[in-house]
Amino acid sequence: MSERAARVWAWIAAAHDDHTPVSVAALCHAAAQRLGVDGASVTATGGAALCEPVCASDDVSARLEELQFTMGEGPGADDFRAGSPMLIAELDSVAAQWPGFVSAAVAAGARAMFSFPLQAGAIQVGILTLYRSRPGPMAAEELADALVFTDIALRLLLDASYGVIGSPGYQPPDGKSESRPEVHQATGMISVQLGVSLEEAYARLRARAFASNAALDDVAAEVVDGRLRFGPGPQPDQEP
Amino acid sequence: MAASVDERLAQAFVELADTLVVGFDLMDFLHTLAERSVELLDVDAAGLLLADGRGALRLVAASTEQARVAELFQLQNDEGPCVDCFRSGQVVSISNIGDSDMAKRWPRFAPAAYEMGFAGVHAIPMRLRDQVIGTLNLFRIAPDGLDQAAARAARALVDVATIGILQERAIRQQELVAGQLQAALHSRVMIEQAKGILAERHRVSPDQAFLILRRYARNNNHALTTLASDVIDGTADIARSSSQARSSSSQARTRRPPQGQAGRPARPEPSSGPPS
Questions:
Q1: What confidence tens digit (pLDDT) does each residue in B146-174 have?
Q2: Which residue intervals of chain B bear CATH 3.30.450.40?
Q3: pLDDT at position A112
Q4: CA angle (B171 as vertex; B167, B173 as ends), nearest 5
Q5: How far apart are CA A158 and CA B165, in angstroms?
Q6: Contacts of A40 (CB under 8 A, 6+ apart)
Q7: d(CA B30, CA B187)
Q8: What CATH architecture applies to the domain A177-238?
Q9: 3-state secondary structure string, B41-52?
Q10: Under an 8 Å CB criterion, which residues of B touch A?
Q11: What's the CATH number of domain B2-172, 1.10.1040.10, 3.30.450.40, 3.40.50.360, 3.80.10.10?
């Protein structure tokens, strides 16, 4: 695991308070503390529409989420189209693009916003939004840390549906296995084998790795090589 | 020989410049660039790796989709000419990775490259002003360095790649660079997912699936990234085209690549088979 990933994970663990050690809420609070910003929030999305606020570190963040949702405007909405973070050092500079949103956001206390899609290719599960009350870009180190936060947040949102968070041995992503091409290829293959979405296929792949205490990329390699197939039914996985 | 490298280079630039302006698709552009690099620089495999924003390098396009060669590019995240090049911002040029001091310098990478049949390894930095955003990594079976003309051409190709990625006219600020890099990485992941879907559907390897995808994109004038997205959401129906995809699979299985074949792209040529 990289030093950076280990450090970010430690921040999240330290932020847990009375939350479970590894939760999206803890992640939000850690992000607000450590990234040179004033607040952080995570929204879960279904497809490309902003849906459900998951957590917010403070009232301003919560308000920004609400504004984006009700107005349908703002950096979060644009994230998924571009597939890249929207880093807005000065909100006024994008006033022409989102007139309603920018004036309301500035009124709420935000002058800079940084919005990160939580995604793996076509799998889009949410958005991490950071804001600052003073304008200015994120520093390079903060940006690198923020990207690790997004890797972890993606993982937490995906794994939450399988109840594996908080189990002993639950590990942060090491940043290497998750980004290997076999993982994404296996996800595609599993989605066809099971007739499910990529998101569900990815979650199933991860759950399988967790349950068998195997590395994600090892299980993915087995799928890509055809040694492991996923089939429908109560016993989801079959070895040929 | 130098004149013909320059002529072919000029031709390659015309081709790349066309893709830069008309219906620009970054993934197609980078794949084309990787493939042209192989011909122009007289090497056997080329890969473009981009900084992932978290301190590591990720392969986004290569002259071959053969998994073993891709692995060799990717292996250099921990050690190897690529990571040295990335950190120093300087060209790293190795004539023979099989030399004994190479294994001391790169104990995992050097033997792995040698086992694959490669001797020459070169890494050229992709730079934007002070920032290194990635590397062009070249593998050569013959144990010579890049000659002067090729080294010049490599630097020119790397600059073209950087421009394609950053669309320099529009780039003023750090944030835009970061966003563009993440977008490129994101496109690559979508292509990998589409490869998996096609591989399962047509019962071929992911490498072959990529060839199917690319050939379909070209024959039907689709952007590669958009096509990948369409495959994923089910709006593209690509019939398997059996002959060309199958014939390249036997090359993918060889452990020690025969002379001249390691990493050679199976470029879809109109003359070598029926149009799909």
A1: 888 888 889 989 988 888 887 644 444 66
A2: 2-172
A3: 96
A4: 150
A5: 30
A6: A28, A29, A31, A32, A56, A57, A61, A128, A129, A130, A131
A7: 11
A8: Orthogonal Bundle (1.10)
A9: CCCCEEEEEEEC
A10: 52-56, 58-59, 67, 70, 74, 77, 173-176, 178-180, 182-183, 186-187, 189-190, 192-201, 206, 229, 232-233
A11: 3.30.450.40
Amino acid B14: pLDDT = 78
User: What whole-number distance in Å separates Cα of residue A72 and Cα of residue A100?
Assistant: 10
> CB-based contacts of B272: which residues, under 8 Å, 6+ apart?
B244
Task: Say what the pTM is.
Answer: 0.76
CATH fold of B185-272 reads Arc Repressor Mutant, subunit A (1.10.10)
Domain extents in chain A = 3-160, 177-238
Measured CA to CA, the distance from residue B17 to residue B11 in angstroms comes to 10
**What's the confidence (pLDDT) of residue A162?**
62
Which of the four CATH numbers 3.50.50.60, 3.30.479.10, 3.30.450.40, 3.10.20.30 does domain A3-160 have?
Answer: 3.30.450.40
Q: Are residues B206 and A224 in contact, defined by beta-carbon separation less than 8 angstroms?
A: yes
Place of tokens 């709006």: B235
Q: Does the pLDDT of residue B112 top 80, yes or no? A: yes
Chain A CB contacts of B70 under 8 Å are: 181
